[in-house]
Specification:
CATH topology of one domain: Serine Threonine Protein Phosphatase 5, Tetratricopeptide repeat
Order of helices and strands: HHHHHHHHHHHH
Structural class: mainly alpha
CATH class of one domain: Mainly Alpha
Radius of gyration: 48 Å
CATH superfamily of one domain: Tetratricopeptide repeat domain
Helix content: 55-70%
Strand content: under 5%
Length: 232
């Protein structure tokens, strides 16, 4: 039923592509992909390949990659786009293939090379709608850490040697700190025997008696004064 109702008028696909362009501007990528799919179906119904069909294929791929759906982009490229023999020799096919490969490999350098203005795909990029060219610039990948970057960050043997040196230095610092803490820490007073405690106590009381006598508060003076008082 859907195949019978396909509009076969000339340039009917252009209206659908204009609708898709407006949807991309509004960030409605799913709806834009549907509109491109309708335009692609109209072109495929004609039975022969055209430049418009090639651009429609690569436009669908760009939309899927911008949505982050690399799996769907790869599936459409292998099961649908590559089945069109004439599409294989087009510049759009080469652009689509390299875009998918860069995203599958998570290779940011390869992706930047694909969308570079001075790269090998500059002609195919120039034939795209400006909105789609801008959308290609928004495609992102996680990226992959290179081996040479890992080696430069950690070092081969030098990094390990340096790490050992730091550890030994830290151990020496800890030992010195312990020695300083032991030197600063006051030693506990020696324990006294019972006889020594008694001698210290007597010395304290004797010193107190001397002070009291010097102040005229000794017991002897008090006793003499009490004897001279008549209590009768």
């Amino acid at each position: 039923m859907a195949t019978q109702n396909i509009i076969t008028d000339s340039y009917a696909h252009e209206t659908l592509f204009k609708v898709a362009t407006e949807l991309i501007k509004r960030r409605h990528y799913e709806s834009a992909l549907y509109a491109y799919g309708a335009g692609t179906a109209s072109l495929e119904h004609e039975g022969y390949a055209t430049v418009s069909l090639s651009r429609a294929y690569v436009s669908e791929c760009i939309l899927l990659l911008a949505m982050g759906d690399t799996v769907a982009a790869t599936k459409d490229f292998q099961n649908v786009h590559l089945q069109n023999t004439q599409y294989l020799s087009s510049r759009e096919c080469a652009l689509e293939e390299d875009l998918i490969r860069a995203c599958n490999d998570m290779d940011l350098d390869a992706l930047n090379e694909v969308r570079s203005r001075s790269g090998s795909h500059r002609a195919a990029m120039a034939n795209l709608d400006p909105v789609l060219r801008e959308l290609v610039g928004e495609i992102r990948v996680s990226g992959r850490v290179r081996k040479e970057k890992q080696q430069s960050a950690t070092g081969n043997d030098g990094g390990k040697t340096k790490k050992k040196g730091v550890s030994s230095k830290s151990g020496a610092s800890a030992a010195v700190s312990k020695e300083i803490a032991a030197a600063i820490k006051p030693s506990p007073p020696p324990e006294l025997t019972g006889k020594e405690i008694e001698q210290d106590t007597d010395a304290v009381f004797a010193e107190m008696d001397d002070i009291m006598n010097q102040m005229g508060l000794g017991d002897d003076d008090g006793e003499d004064d009490d004897d001279d008082i008549d209590l009768t």
